[in-house]
Amino acid sequence: MVRYIEYLRKIMHLMETWPDIQQGLFSQARFNIPPHMTHERLMETFQRPYYTHHCFVLERVSPFFFWAEGAAMKALQTGE
User: Fold this and answer.
1) Alpha helices in 1-80 (DSSP H)
2) Phi, psi angle pair for 73, to nearest 5°
């Protein structure tokens, strides 16, 4: 878990500082906004009146990390 947290911090650092990906991350994701998500809440969360791609990128980081680490195979081999 510690390695995952370190990995996630690196990913977030890249997302915040790498100019080449900033435009794509901050562009509109064209996600249908749920009724409970207000304009104010979107501005508070994303600093924009729409969903950005950040959440879609970050929700895919965990499975990729654990796949790359071979977590499923290690768990099967050790019975954890």
Assistant:
1) 2-17, 19-26, 39-46, 54-69, 71-78
2) -65, -40
Distance (Å, whole) CA 79 – CA 4:
21
- Smallest CA-to-CA distance from 57 within 18, 44, 78, 49 is with 18
**Distance between CA 29 and CA 33 in Å, rounded?**
10
d(CA 28, CA 51): 6
The 10s digit of each residue's pLDDT in 30-76 is: 888 888 888 898 899 888 888 888 888 888 888 888 888 876 555 55
What are 70's two structure tokens? 């071979």
pTM, two decimals, is 0.60
pLDDT-derived band at 25 (thresholds 50, 70, 90) equals: confident
* In the chain, domain spans: 2-78
What spatial distance separates the first Cα and last Cα of the chain, rounded to whole Å? 14
